[in-house]
Write a structure and sequence with these properties.
transport, Rossmann fold, nucleotide-binding, 277 residues, 4-stranded antiparallel sheet, 10 helices, ATP hydrolysis activity, globular, alpha/beta, ABC_transporter-like_CS, AAA+_ATPase
Length: 277
């Protein structure tokens, strides 16, 4: 892992309109270095996706500073994004909504290659990226509807990495896949990110997969960052009670699994009141 910091987000706050407004992300900081995979975990509604979209410049922030490769990240508007910020690429949960159904997949991966060329990075071939994600390189003229969900997600990954990003943000990229391919696709993403020298922010609620691929794991609950530590250390010695609850919910290897009882209101109040560690 390089010491070069590609993402430095400090004190990020995201609020949505309402009466009163809803604070989805509350003063959260996160950093990702080149060559590092950082996982962001927590239950649904914890603010993971809102933070990811803010980091990518998709969501407006109510506070904090986000820099990518030393450059402030401004929310996307109607104007074309600065070329330097195309070094941030994102893979979404559902590839069916992120791939254009009317365009051949070769053309869509080609968009990523053109993005890399516009930044002065080296070019590549569409067929090369299809092969790298485990698909037949002769399928360039096919359309998205001709592929399974897992194959479409691989195409979305190829398109993002063909742009040779310095930061890849993956927002629940494996949750829509069947269990047999989730781990392999996550491992593929980690390997390819390392190959192009990028950092990756990997958002997931699948802790078993996170344990396999993440260098560091950040735990969020109710919009707050509760724990941020190297993954191996966090698994060996979870310090926050919410982290311990999350890890207790992972099924055991014997196949029977063990899911704890639903947390009580007192549990949730205690988690929210316990300081971050």
């Amino acid at each position: 892992m390089s010491d070069a910091m590609v993402l430095d987000a400090q004190g990020v706050t995201v609020r949505y309109p309402g009466n009163p407004p809803v604070t989805a992300v509350d003063d959260v900081s996160v950093q990702v270095a080149s060559g590092e995979t950082v996982a962001l975990v927590g239950e649904s509604g914890s603010g993971k996706s809102s933070l990811a979209r803010a980091v990518a410049g998709i969501e407006r922030t109510a506070g904090g500073l986000i820099t990518f490769d030393g450059m402030p990240v401004a929310p996307m508007g109607v104007r074309r994004r600065p070329v330097a910020l195309t070094g941030i690429q994102m893979v979404f949960q559902d590839p069916s909504t992120s791939l254009n159904p009317r365009r051949r997949i070769g053309d869509q991966i080609g968009d990523g290659i053109q993005t890399a060329l516009a930044r002065g990075d080296q070019g590549s071939r569409v067929e090369e990226w299809l092969e790298r994600v485990g698909l037949d390189p002769s399928w360039t003229r096919r359309y998205p509807h001709q592929f399974s969900g897992g194959q479409k997600q691989r195409i979305a990954i190829a398109r993002a990495l063909a742009a040779r990003p310095k930061l890849l943000i993956a927002d629940e990229p494996i949750s829509a896949l069947d269990a047999s391919t989730q781990t392999s696709v996550a491992a593929l993403m980690r390997d390819l990110v390392a190959e192009v020298g990028a950092g990756m922010l990997f958002i997931s609620h699948d802790l078993a997969v996170v344990r396999r691929i993440a260098d560091r794991t950040l735990v969020m609950y109710a919009g707050r960052m509760l724990e941020s530590r190297p993954t191996a250390e966090l698994w060996a010695d979870p310090r926050h009670p919410y982290t311990r609850s999350l890890l207790a919910a992972i099924p055991e290897p014997d196949g029977r699994g063990r899911i704890p009882a639903a947390p009580t209101a007192e549990d949730r109040a205690a988690w929210a009141a316990t300081p971050a560690v």
